[in-house]
Amino acid sequence: MNIVLIGYMGSGKSSIGKKLAAILKSSYCDLDEVIEKKEHRSITEIFKEKGEIYFRTIESKYLIEVLEQNSNSVIALGGGTPCYGNNMDEITKAQGTVSIYLKASINSLSNRLFNEKANRPLIAHLETVEALNEFIGKHLFERSSFYNQCKIVINTDNKSIDEVVE
Ligand code: S3P
């Protein structure tokens, strides 16, 4: 069975995914890392050199490959992956796949993201916590209907990584 981890940037998909995979003795796959490897450049470089539409197009392509090629893995997606094209449908209909939404409040996400925005092209330019809060709030409003289609929703606020993994 594949476990697909979904959630906004900073929701803990990668850290939780790595630990969960180790405990389940599954392999761990990170869609952003797959994209960077296949495209021979960082996500930031892809956004800068080719633009977001190009990124969203290849993100959908590699999502399908990753869902097809893994059978016993924990797969962490990018924060926007389920929200473009038919991606959420592809995830829902993938055989033997359980989707989990790692839900977090605007404040938790903003606290986690403020010092980690440099490698995230969508938020790297936001200079204040207020601007980041506003951006996340707007984005969550648009994206939650996709995230909430997951089979399982886990509220991660005030929980440690180990608690969420358990
Ligand atoms: C994005 C999230 C990023 C990465 C890209 C776009 C988004 O992944 O895919 O910068 O649209 O939310 P993380 O959620 O792993 O930071």
The CA-CA distance between the termini, in Å, is: 17 Å
> Shape, please?
globular
Q: Structural class per helix/strand content?
A: alpha/beta
**Widest sheet: strand ordering:** 2-3-1-4-5
CATH fourth-tier homologous superfamily of the domain at 2-103 and 147-157: P-loop containing nucleotide triphosphate hydrolases
Named CATH topology of the domain at 2-103 and 147-157: Rossmann fold
CATH architecture classification of the domain at 2-103 and 147-157: 3-Layer(aba) Sandwich
Instruction: Please give the radius of gyration in angstroms.
Output: 15 Å
State the name of the first-level CATH class of the domain at 2-103 and 147-157.
Answer: Alpha Beta
Mean of all residue-level pLDDT scores: 97
Number of strands: 5
Order of helices and strands: EHEHHHEHEHHEH
Please summarize the sheet with the most strands.
5 strands, parallel
Q: What portion of residues is helical? A: 40-55%
Task: Please give the count of helices.
Answer: 8
Residue stretches low in confidence (pLDDT < 50, at least 5 long) are none
Can you put this structure into words, describing what you see?
The chain is globular, with a radius of gyration of 15 Å. It contains eight helices and five strands. With 166 residues, it is an alpha/beta fold. It starts with a strand and ends with a helix. Helix content is 52%, strand content 14%. A five-stranded parallel sheet has the order 2-3-1-4-5, sandwiched between helices. It has a domain at 2-103 and 147-157: Rossmann fold (3-Layer(aba) Sandwich). Bound molecules: shikimate-3-phosphate. Shikimate-3-phosphate binds at residues 9, 13, 32, 43, 78-80, 120-122. Substrate binds at residues 32, 56, 79, 143. Its main location: cytoplasm. GO terms for molecular function: kinase activity. It holds the Pfam family SKI.
